[in-house]
Amino acid sequence: MSSTTCVVVWVSCGSKLENITTTTHQKSVVKCSNNNNDKIRFTSISSAAVAAASVPSRSSEEKVYEVVLKQAALVREQRKRRTIEIDDDFMTNLHLLNAAYDRCGQVCAEYAKTFFLGTQLMTEERRKAIWAIYVWCRRTDELVDGPNASHITPTALDRWEQRLNDVFQGRPYDMFDAALSHTVSNYPVDIQPFKDMIEGMRMDLRKSRYNNFDELYLYCYYVAGTVGLMSVPVMGIAPDSNSSTETIYNAALALGIANQLTNILRDVGEDARRGRIYLPQDELAQAGLSEEDIFNGKVTDKWRNFMKGQIKRARIFFDEAEKGVSELNSASRWPVWASLLLYRQILDSIEANDYNNFTKRAYVGQAKKLFSLPAAYAKAFLGPPKLTKMIMR
């Protein structure tokens, strides 16, 4: 998936990797417009709307929110998966299992250095579990965006999904699978977000245009928002949190959407050279832009105005994500805050490049990264309100 250059664990943590493949609740969901003058709009999803699972006219937000409700329910109940008795070296030999987790940690340390550093504050059990999820996501992403991507077929993705089913049944194929299998047996993690990520890979094989933001939103959920749903059960919710589990999951989802939108805006030129446009076609037309304008890669006033609206939308999702980060277990907040702050700065870099994301790559320099780490640490342990008060004194 050309626009997804990093897989995120609630949500984004590193650069492109080399191939390592071996309800009834009401909820407000962010509905963001590309119009610069529009305010944030919220759509209340009633229990009737959620129940109408077969109605084709449902928005992508409604479809995704059903998954959010299910994941939140698992965490509330703290349901554990049934332990399956199997005769497998990886799952029954503690030494081999620890070696599998260690290998996952090595992959995370090599390709997601900042995030890996943050995971060191977690308990050993949570840290290893997050590593296992990270590696599975990376391997999945590499299927369609790695060195062997040209050889990947829908049938190959079907086999990968069957392998996932086996992992959730305690039948790992290799050491990376064993680490994930052990993780999902110890935490209330559901298989649906993992399946949805694979569906995002299928979408990349058959689709290179998105008619509107509703379509793009669903894609962003598949390839990035899913990771937040996978990770919250492992990272844990703060014991003193007053927020509902649905609110926290929705924030995790928002961070995934925000980061993927940022990926897309950063990589417009790179994707265009591959014949792909991950931008809403109707909004391009409304801005007076065509596909040829994208392929020609010329920065005009029309393009600048269009990009301002797209960046505004991404920032709205980042703002929504912030509401949930501080509700996580205190030991899990730092890597999430770090990824949020660093990724949001990519949008600043696009603006600094005068919206030239055709030939200039927006990135966060090393100095800014280093500066962001203590800021993320402070937000993680003081919380934004307390931090603001200290700064104002």
Automatic annotation (TrEMBL):
One of its GO terms (biological process) is carotenoid biosynthetic process. It catalyses: 2 (2E,6E,10E)-geranylgeranyl diphosphate = 15-cis-phytoene + 2 diphosphate. One of its GO terms (molecular function) is geranylgeranyl diphosphate synthase activity. It comes from Arachis duranensis. It holds the Pfam family SQS_PSY. InterPro entries: Isoprenoid_synthase_dom_sf, Squ/phyt_synthse, Squalene/phytoene_synthase_CS, Trans_IPPS_bact-type, Trans_IPPS_HH. GO terms for cellular component: plastid. Belongs to the phytoene/squalene synthase family. Pathway: Carotenoid biosynthesis; phytoene biosynthesis; all-trans-phytoene from geranylgeranyl diphosphate: step 1/1. The chain crosses the membrane at residues 216-238. Gene3D superfamilies: Farnesyl Diphosphate Synthase. Keywords: Carotenoid biosynthesis, Isoprene biosynthesis, Membrane, Transferase, Transmembrane, Transmembrane helix. This is 15-cis-phytoene synthase. It comes from the Eukaryota. The keyword Membrane applies. Its EC number is 2.5.1.32.
